[in-house]
Amino acid sequence: MDRKVSEYIAQTKWTQELTFLRSLLLDLDLEETVKWSAPAYTYKGKNVLGMAAFKNYFGIWFHQGVFLQDEAKVLMNAQEGKTKAMRQWRFSSIDEIDPALVKSYALEAMKNVELGKELKPKRASKPLIIPEKLAAAFSNDEELEHKFSSLSLTKKREFAEHIATAKREATQNARLEKIIPMIKEGIGLNDKYRNC
Fold first, then answer.
1. What is the pLDDT confidence band of residue 191, given thresholds at 50, 70 and 90?
2. Where do runs of H (alpha helix) occur along the chain?
3. What are residue 62's DSSP bridge partners?
4. Which helix (H) or strand (E) holds 40?
5. Whole-angstrom Cα distance, residue 162 to residue 189?
6. Tens of pLDDT along 60-77?
7. Which domains does the chain have, with CATH numbers?
8. Could you give the CA distance from residue 188 to residue 151 in angstroms, rounded to a whole number?
């Protein structure tokens, strides 16, 4: 039993309910931890499910719930159109918790881990938009344009957004002056914050 999970449960208004759910999950071969500031349960190193308390309900969510058969029709997509794999099971009282059903869903989720069923998120790639000030600097300095084109997409985005987010022209000009030497040296805007 993870101490942080006990602390999480103790500070909610759903203490009795979450303690009961926790007891059911700890009967299984799941490892308990805290992730994203809430109780989480893993199996063979994979996130299987989590448990959380909200104002009007408490519940469990299955990270790869899209693969569960859900014969009892208890799962929902909490963010339709946004959440692809995760499914949530909400409760509003301890009486709604069917221990055998909760365990059967958790066991099915664990079996899916063994089968390698996993829906990985697709990263949406937005186009790189070069602000006018930066484009004008390229037309006046071939070396700058060449060095910029050799940077990673992440670094290019950082520089472009740094200029584009400045509201005043004076700020845009000051930022442009600052980044030109960095681009020519191949130094990213946020390199000092990255672990190299």
1. confident
2. 3-10, 15-26, 99-115, 132-140, 142-149, 153-164, 169-185
3. 49, 87
4. strand 38-43
5. 9
6. 999 999 999 999 999 999
7. 3-115 (3.90.1150.200), 132-193 (no CATH)
8. 8
